[in-house]
Specification:
The complex is a heterodimer of chains A (382) and B (476). Chain A has 382 residues and is α/β, with parallel strands linked by helices. Chain A has a domain at 1-22 and 75-257 and 281-288 and 361-382. Chain A has ten helices and twelve strands. Chain A has helices at 34-39, 64-71, 90-99, 110-118, 164-178, 186-211, 222-235, 256-280, 348-359, 365-368, and strands at 12-18, 28-29, 51-52, 58-59, 75-82, 128-131, 147-149, 242-247, 287-293, 312-318, 324-326, 346-347. In chain A, the strands form two sheets. In chain A, strands 1, 5, 6, 7, 8, 9, 10, 11 and 12 form a nine-stranded mixed β-sheet that branches. A three-stranded antiparallel β-sheet of chain A has the order 2-4-3, with no helix packed on it. Chain B is 55% helix and 3% strand. Chain B has a two-stranded antiparallel sheet. In chain B, strands 3-4 form a two-stranded antiparallel sheet. The mean pLDDT of chain B is 92. Classes of the chains: A alpha/beta (382), B mainly alpha (476). At the A-B interface, helix 3, helix 5 and helix 6 of A face helix 8, helix 21, helix 22, helix 25 and helix 26 of B.
């Protein structure tokens, strides 16, 4: 249900999941902090190369586009984000972020529920689109259709039929087989309806790349291509509101410096291109990006990389975002560590609540299984 | 003996349920076997599954190591695809769904490999052995925190799930029974638990594969006081609890309902069972009776099930939704592509994952919700695309064979040809509607009067592809 009278159907939320556990300390670097040098004997960023935010913190090199957006006041950084009794298993921690349920095993994703609230009658099968195969649990919710697009150009049924005529012929027959009354039982009716919806969604999505015109040239890496596809779908005005993408793997137990650099170059490049594209097409005010990871990494490095930690970072980007730092940068003093990790100081569900209520204009408590104080990172009236 | 069409359809139905489907050609090779003998063959424990493990582990070391998730998943899919004892694999998958234990918490493939192997060994055995098997299984103990279950400080997780999801079901025990059950299982733990647990959380790569966790019974940590469980009193240890559970009619009914849902017709998810009656109470009663009278023998229950009228009945045939592992496996058994260790198995495992079923990583201890819950717009696209691309691929040996057989069939009736195609693919059942549309498509494909002699390979593979894309093909 839409709250505060504002239509829930205008704003776009673009989620970038950084899978594997992004190293917080090497993303927003406490480059003048003595402890950083003490604990990061090998896996550290050279202070000369940091893009300074102030005289304590700076972005890692390679995050030039995000730094530019930060200077324009469009980047909110949530420091020390996490949840009580941190779990350092990828799967479990990611599940917790996806289902907003740290204490139990949830089966419904927060965004799946959000999509259900935005479109209770599933009138638009494309309200939520995942750019990648399979369905992240964040988007999973019984009865909520979500399209998972591996490759937008070839998305749809029978992508392996090369001949256009044969493909169309097969799709026609498919439509006839799945459409209308099945005449067997309710299971067949459900299969028919779902197939028809899938076909409809595919037909609609397929028009997006064809309609796309832009001066932006995205990089060819998967992150660039995912955000390009998201842009194509967004500008085709198909009614999609939630766009989900992933990049990884940030699980840098070894060889971190090279890997982390490469990954952030790709993320930063894609985010920069995407935001430029969004501005070129006049969608700046209604588009917000949300970058998160399932946990941060250990304060002390292991000589080549870092192992799983807990307290992490989230980044929110957009024209409607009140740029700035939220939460607190966790203390690096040994007595303040949480089992050798950065101590989280705010619950991720606060950030979710902010996005759900202030950005998507939905009621949050049922979606995130509780009441959580919001941050003030969305500009009023947006 | 020459099987009638009706015999063949019944046998195909048996293969779809007790195994992973079949083809007309495969059934021809056992034409002389009556139905009952085929059932006995499935249930025979002396048959080897035909897998040479030395060769398998040489090509796929991670199938043994289970470093991450994909090796253990692929090992399971590989077994389902090539095993010569498919019912054992189906039962391993069945028990895995009931005693659902997930990689997401354990972060180690090897112990899950070991758990699945235990299910294979005990698949058709005695319920007592099966429940003892899970009670001493390291993966299960860690999954349900029984290694945190101590004398004087019990952890009820395993005790609760044992009663709620693994044997009797809600409504057949009290909260006190749960506590007593938990007390009885104190001391049932993991050897070197703290060290090994740390290793499991730390996802670092090992050069030689993971260490296997081991079960250990620590007598000092066991609460050996008197307990009162399900109305019986005694100084019960875990095996006593298992003994008492097995003889309960509620256990028989619960397991029977699971078996019915898996082999006969989709029931609602387990969480709804206390509130919704089984669709065929008489069948459940009959199965429960066999369970009790045979001394909790699963083989006997299944023998009864596969030979029963309610299993053979036409109203439950072609009604179940194939789960992703089942769908992919049954297609691979038709295409004949996987005959030995093959890197493509990893790819097919990913396919099962994107269809919504992660082997060895079910979403929770409740296992997977079956039936229609496998179906949504995203999975439908994956399922239809996979099915049609595989079955329509004439380069696959099994498909090529089917096409050649079909092209030798003399026929000038499109409908007759469609029927022959569905038979070749394993006696796939089509509704009138699907059949009608396929006939229309076939008629539209040819210029003049239909004649098989005018068809080329690609015409035939096209029809096979379309059969595999029907909504009917998603069901078994």
């Amino acid at each position: 249900m839409a709250t505060n009278g504002k239509s829930a159907v205008d704003n776009n939320l673009v989620v970038l999941q950084l899978s594997g556990g992004n190293d917080y300390l090497n993303t927003i670097v406490p480059y003048t902090n003595g402890f950083y040098n003490d604990f990061r004997t090998t896996v550290k960023i050279n202070p000369e190369e940091v893009l300074p935010i102030n005289d304590e913190l700076g972005f890692r090199p390679g995050m030039e586009a995000i730094k530019r957006l930060w200077d324009e006041g469009k980047v909110a950084i949530i420091h020390g984000i996490g949840y009580p009794q941190p779990n350092r298993s990828h799967f479990r921690s990611m599940d917790i972020w996806h289902t907003a349920l740290p204490d139990d095993v949830g089966t419904e994703g927060w965004l799946g529920r959000a999509i259900r609230d935005m479109d209770p009658k599933s009138e638009n099968v494309l309200t939520g689109v995942n750019f990648g195969r399979g369905l992240p649990r964040a988007l999973g919710c019984r009865g909520v259709p979500v399209a998972s697009v591996g490759d937008l150009e070839t998305y749809g049924l029978f992508p392996d039929i090369q001949d256009d005529f044969l493909r169309k012929f097969a799709l026609d027959t498919f439509a006839k087989m799945y459409g209308g009354a099945q005449g067997k039982d309710s299971v067949m009716d459900f299969l028919g309806q779902t197939g028809t919806d899938a076909l409809k969604g595919a037909d609609i999505l397929r028009t997006a790349p064809a309609m796309y015109e832009s001066s932006i040239e995205y990089a060819s890496d998967p992150m660039g291509q995912s955000l390009k596809s998201a842009a194509q779908v967004m500008f085709a005005d198909l009614g999609t509101r939630v766009f989900y993408t992933q990049h990884g793997s940030f699980d840098t137990h070894a060889g971190e410096l090279e890997t982390h650099e490469k990954l952030w170059k790709e993320v930063d490049g894609a985010v920069g291109d995407f935001m430029d594209d969004v501005h070129e097409h006049g969608r700046g005010k209604e588009t917000t990006l949300f970058l998160f990871s399932e946990f941060g990494r250990r304060i002390k490095d292991n000589g080549s990389g870092t192992d799983h930690g807990s307290g992490g970072i989230a980044i929110i980007i957009g024209d409607s975002v009140k740029g700035g730092m939220y939460g607190e940068y966790p203390s690096l003093k040994p007595e303040d560590h949480l089992d050798g990790d950065l101590h989280f100081n705010n619950d991720f569900r606060q950030t979710y609540t902010t996005l759900l209520e202030d950005w998507l204009h939905l009621d949050a408590p049922e979606i995130v299984n509780g009441n959580f104080d919001k941050f003030d990172f969305i500009k009023n009236g947006h | 003996m020459v099987s009638t069409q009706s015999d063949l359809q019944l046998k195909a139905h048996l293969f779809r349920r007790a195994a992973f489907g079949t083809t007309a050609h495969q059934l021809e090779n056992m034409d002389s076997m009556p139905y009952e003998q085929i059932v006995d063959g499935f249930l025979d424990s002396d048959t080897s599954n035909g897998i040479d493990y030395d060769v398998l582990y040489r090509y796929c070391p991670d199938f043994s190591g289970g470093l991450g998730m994909s090796g253990a998943q692929s090992k399971f899919l590989y077994h389902m695809t090539v095993s010569e004892t498919p019912l054992i694999e189906k039962m391993a998958l069945f028990w895995h769904g009931v005693f659902a234990t997930a990689y997401s918490k354990l972060t180690q493939g090897k112990i899950l490999n070991n758990q699945i192997e235990m299910f294979r060994q005990l698949a058709l055995g005695n319920m007592h052995d099966i429940l003892m098997g899970i009670s001493t299984d390291p993966a299960m103990m860690m999954w349900l925190d029984n290694d945190d279950n101590h004398k004087g400080a019990i952890n009820e997780n395993y005790g609760r799930e044992l009663l709620e999801l693994f044997s009797m079901g809600v409504g057949n025990y009290t909260e006190d029974d749960i506590k007593e059950c938990a007390r009885a299982f104190t001391g049932w733990t993991i050897r070197n638990k703290d060290y090994v647990r740390l290793k499991a959380q730390n996802d670092s790569l090992w050069p030689y594969g993971r260490m296997s966790f081991e079960f250990q019974y620590i007598a000092d940590d066991h609460d050996d006081g008197e307990k009162c469980f399900l109305g019986e009193k005694g100084n019960f240890n875990g095996e006593d609890i298992v003994r008492i559970i097995c003889k309960q009619e509620a256990t028989g009914r619960f397991i029977s309902r699971h078996l019915y849902s898996y082999f006969v017709a989709d029931e609602p998810p387990v969480t709804k069972w206390p509130y919704e009656e089984p669709r065929d109470s008489k069948a459940i009663e009959a199965l429960t009776k066999v369970y009790l009278e045979s001394g909790y023998n699963i083989r006997e229950v299944l023998k009864f099930l596969f030979n029963s009228d309610f299993f053979k009945a036409s109203n439950i045939r072609n009604t179940k939704i194939k789960g992703p592992a089942e769908l992919v496996t049954s297609i691979l058994r038709v295409t004949g592509e996987i005959t030995g260790p093959n890197p493509k198995i990893m790819q097919y495992t990913s396919q099962v994952n994107v269809m919504g079923q992660e082997l060895i990583n079910p979403p929770s201890v409740e296992g997977w919700h079956q039936g229609l819950e496998w179906i949504d717009t995203g999975t439908t696209v994956e399922r239809v695309n996979f099915s049609s691309a595989q079955i329509g691929d004439s380069t696959k040996p099994g498909i090529k064979n089917i096409i050649l057989r079909l092209m030798e069939f003399d026929c000038t009736e499109p409908g007759e040809f469609i029927d022959k195609c569905t038979d070749e693919l394993g006696f796939v059942y089509l509704t009138d509607k699907s059949r009608e549309e396929l006939i229309n498509h076939l008629s539209g494909q040819v210029a003049d009067e239909f004649n098989v002699r005018d068809l080329d390979e690609s015409d035939v593979s096209n029809i096979l592809r379309l059969i595999a894309s029907t909504p009917d093909y998603q069901r078994a």
